[in-house]
Structures are given as structure tokens and as C-alpha cells.
Amino acid sequence: MTARPPLVLTVAGSDSGGGAGIQADLKTMLALGVHGMSVLTAVTAQNSRGVHGAWELPEDAVRAQYRAVVDDIGVQAVKTGMLASAVLVETVADLLAGTTAATGVPVVVDPVGVSKHGDPLLAASALDAVRTRLLPTATVATPNLDEVAQLTGVVVEDEDGMRRAAGAILAYGPRWALIKGGHLPSGEEAVDLLTDGSEELWLRAPRHDNRHTHGTGCALASAVASGLAKGLTVPEAVRQAKAYVTGAIAAGFALGGGIGPVDHAW
Ligand code: PLP
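That is the input. Now the predicted structure with pyridoxal-5'-phosphate docked in place:
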């Protein structure tokens, strides 16, 4: 009998094209040597050109999947991604508060808002629930700059702005904020900021001009959750996750007629 790998649960939406969402999460987890499990929140009809349809699952189906995993198998880290609606954000926040808060299981919240193609993955009416219900459950919240603007109103144009963004996100209660500056217009580096309000870690990686970056955010959050499930500290989990995603972006490949995925298995 071989040793059991660490257990990681993703609560997220499906991407039929296999580049983002649940599919990206499970591929990342496999690549990083943890056992991935999934609670599906929504199904998207999606390819390299964009999201062509999205259907959220009933609240009961989300609850039942979560309970099935947690009550029998257990989890050592949870990652949340696309939650689609206010009802599902509240449902997932309740489930997380009821289990992970009591047991100290780390939670990585990727507050997914809009896809790279501009397709909405979260109803505007759900933003308040993300701020007041979901973010407080997070060990690490991983917004990109668009999500920062949506959630806090802070428009980031430089590294000082990233610091302000982190403060605004931390005010909603996550223990750490990882602000992803990949969308900053300037600079030859992809710069992210991880902070808990006292410790500050700037992560810099060369920016690749590869446009096949579909699913980057999903891979990063899943990699952080995988590291935390292995027992790494938050800064070390984020450092290793950034290195993994930088390699996955460098190896991203063309698929279909639009934007291809990062290579989770690089
Ligand atoms: N589809 C799903 C189900 C997602 O969860 C996400 C991002 O979290 C996306 C699509 C968007 O991916 P990207 O913006 O990297 O294209």
C-alpha cells in the first residue's frame, strides 16, 4: 500500500474546453501530487473563443456534493472558483464556515468574476455575498486586478495601488491577500503581492508574451491549495504556486481558434 496523497477539494465551475475551472484545478492537483476532488457549481459550454453558455447547479446539488466529500473522505485544503450566483456564494460560504473554520482547514478563495474574454462568471448581485460571506472564510484570497476593482472599487495602476488593493481586500476578512498584478499595463515582469497586512512578499516573474494563458488563475489558486494541503506555510505555498504557474504559462499552447490553455502538465 502506498501513502495517501494530501486531499484537496475544488468548488468551482466546469470548462468544457478543459483549460480552466474544475478541469484546470484537477489537472493542477494531479501535476502537484495531491488527490483532487470536486464540487461542481456550474456547467459552462466553453472553448478557446469564449463562454457560450452557463448553467448553475441547484443549491442542494452543491450541498450534497460537498457533504459527500467532507463527511467520508475529508479535506486538507479547499479551493473555490466560479460560484455563479449569490445563492451559491452563500451556500458555499455556509458550508466552509461550518467545516473548515472549525477544523482549521485552509481555504483559497479565487473570487472569479469575468473571463479573459469578458464573459461574466458571477452575477453582479453576488458581489455583496462575496465580500461579506465568502472572503471572511478565506485563508488566502487571490483576486486579479479586475476582481479587485469589482469588489473594492480600487483601480490599480502601479505597485502602490496593489498595496492599497490588498488593504481593501484584507478589510473583508481573509487572512492573506494575493493580489495578481498580471494585468498591469506596464512592465516586463508579472508582479504579484502577497500580504497579511504586516508581512509583505512581492513575487516577480518574467512576463511571457505567450497569449495562451486560459485558466491561469484557476491553476494558481489550485496550486496554492495543494501546497497548503502538503503543510506548507502560506508564503511558501504561494512562492511554489507562482513558480508552477510561470512554467505552465511558458508552456501554454494553441488550441482551437482563440486563446489556448496553460500547460498544467509542463
Ligand atoms: N471558466 C471557468 C469555469 C472558470 O472558473 C474561469 C476562471 O476562473 C474561466 C472560465 C476563465 O478563465 P480565463 O479568464 O483564464 O480565460
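The longest strand covers residues 35-47.
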